[in-house]
Amino acid sequence: MINKQPTDIKSKIRKKTELIVLLEVITIREEKIAITEKK
User: DSSP character for 15?
Assistant: First the structure.
């Protein structure tokens, strides 16, 4: 039980960071599209 908890927390943090990275990539793409549309 004690050994399981740290890995669970690490996996949760990893999932969160992956989601944040995905969101950042999407927002950067949208910003690039907006910039190209303005030109």
Answer: H
Query: What are the tokens at 36?
Result: 């190209």
pLDDT digits (tens, 9 = 90+) for 15-30: 999 999 999 999 999 9
Where b means 16+ CB within 10 Å and e means fewer, 23-33 reads: eeeeeeeeeee
**Alpha-carbon distance 13 to 20, whole Å?**
10
pLDDT at 1 over 60: no
The residue assigned the tokens 């669970």 is 8
User: Is pTM, for the whole model, over 0.90?
Assistant: no
E strands within 1-39?
none
Q: Which amino acid is at 35?
A: I
